[in-house]
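Fold this sequence, please.
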Amino acid sequence: MTYFLSVIGLVLVIEGLPYFVFPEKMKQFMSRLPAIPTGSLRIFGITAIITGLVILFISRKMMST
């Protein structure tokens, strides 16, 4: 459970960083978001999920050896 909470905390730090460092750019990006086709957003989402799972798999393998 501690590992899970650490991961959630790190995700929140990484997700919040662009909003803190580039707030105006994030506003511009968010205003353009509805113009991006749904299919493209789904492809980006599944790519991010698969990449995250691969990273988790590799890191768990490295921790167990």
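Residues 27 and 57 are 34 Å apart (CA to CA). The radius of gyration is 16 Å.
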